[in-house]
From TrEMBL:
Coiled coil location: none
Protein name: Anti-sigma factor, negative regulator of sigma24 activity
InterPro entries membership: MucB/RseB_C (IPR033436), MucB/RseB_C_sf (IPR038484), MucB/RseB_N (IPR033434), MucB_RseB (IPR005588)
Signal sequence, start to end: 1-36
Length: 359
């Protein structure tokens, strides 16, 4: 359930995959509980749409403070989240890691400040927050219910909150199933899981503790942003790009995945800017992001470089699949929270024809 890796993830800024919605992580469940499929009923399209919209709006408009537990493969970590919204729906958010190196992400609407204390570095970029737990829908352009059936399961409690439980089951094998636990009253997403073959939970995210409807403390977030103003700043810029103009085409025969963004962006380990490298950036790549509205993947195109030792191959962690292949003098990397066959099809569909020189 995510639109592709964020810069912070790709650049190793937080190393948490940008905490994307697609990485549905949660409290550990037993295999028996995870695969149990009680009798359910299919929601009609109107009711299903209403619940999806309610879940999505709650993430943006409710005030909530809580602790999130993430699990992806064998990796488990925790974060503290604070989220506030005002009367005109401005958003203020603070996300602090509770494991490993201290990391803090401060957000005001779509402007994200990622703080790296040991380097006294702030990475500033624009990100859409609608693809990050507990938000849900990656894009308004794709109708999720054309690709998934939504079923209502027996209600459960999560973090002391009475929840309605739903499953979104795909019409094909090109995407994973998703299971959602939403607060019965506010609609705030309490737990989400990505489900693989045989009902296996591949990734989970859940609140282990949460307070909903708390008074706003947005000023503390604004003060934290201001307090880091003396640190080194690196501003990430995304330039619009056209891969076709550079000789690339991507054949995507898989139904439902729409191209939602083409950009040229920095990639690599970020450091505080120096006199020799004023931007602090390593190099740039092309990125094409696809989404079916609920999950997504990214295609990265980068020139072969001594700066990055690469080799062809495949890898996976939780629901995330990665394929790397070489085309001409470029590396193609496809990363997605989708089955391996889908990532392989996208990787195989990338073709290059050197553009003709303009005289």
């Amino acid at each position: 359930m995510h639109k592709g890796p964020s810069l912070a993830n790709a650049a190793g800024v937080h190393g948490k995959k940008g905490l994307r919605r697609s990485f549905f992580l949660a409290l550990c469940l037993t295999a028996a509980a995870a695969t149990a499929q009680p009798s359910d009923s299919t929601l009609n399209r109107r009711d299903a749409t209403a619940w999806l919209n309610k879940i999505h709006r709650a993430a943006q408009r409710e005030n909530y403070v809580g602790t999130l537990i993430y699990q992806r493969g064998s990796i488990i970590h925790a974060s503290r989240i604070q989220h506030y919204s005002d009367l005109v729906h401005n958003e203020y958010e603070r996300l602090e890691t509770l494991d490993g190196k201290p990391r803090e992400v401060l957000r005001q609407n779509d402007v994200v400040h990622s703080l790296i204390p040991e380097a006294k570095l702030v990475v500033v970029e624009k990100q859409e927050a609608k693809d990050r737990f507990p938000a849900l829908l990656a894009t308004n352009k794709s109708d999720v219910l054309d690709l998934y059936d939504m079923h209502k399961l027996p209600a459960e409690r999560v973090a002391g909150v009475e929840c309605e439980v739903f499953s979104l089951d795909p019409h094909d094998t090109a995407r994973y199933a998703v299971r959602l636990w939403a607060d019965r009253n506010s609609g705030l997403l309490m737990r989400a899981q990505t489900i693989g073959e045989g009902g296996k939970v591949l990734e989970q995210v859940a609140f282990s503790q949460v307070d909903i409807g708390v008074p706003s403390d947005k000023q503390r977030i604004l003060n934290a942003i201001k307090g880091a103003s003396s640190w080194s700043h690196y501003e990430v810029t995304y330039q619009p790009a056209s891969i076709a103009d550079e000789g690339w085409s991507i054949n995507t025969p898989i139904k439902g995945f729409q191209k939602i963004r083409e950009v040229r962006r920095p990639l690599g380990e970020l450091h505080a800017p120096t006199s020799a490298n004023k931007s602090g950036q390593v190099f740039e790549v092309l990125q094409v992001v696809y989404s079916d509205g609920l999950t997504g993947l990214s295609v990265f195109i980068e020139p072969v470089s001594e700066q990055r030792a690469r080799r062809e191959g495949v890898a996976s962690l939780g629901a995330t699949q990665v394929v790397v292949r070489r085309v001409a003098d470029f590396w193609i990397t496809v990363v997605g929270e989708v089955p391996a066959s889908t990532v392989r099809q996208f990787a195989a569909g990338v073709e290059y024809r050197p553009p003709k020189a303009v005289h």
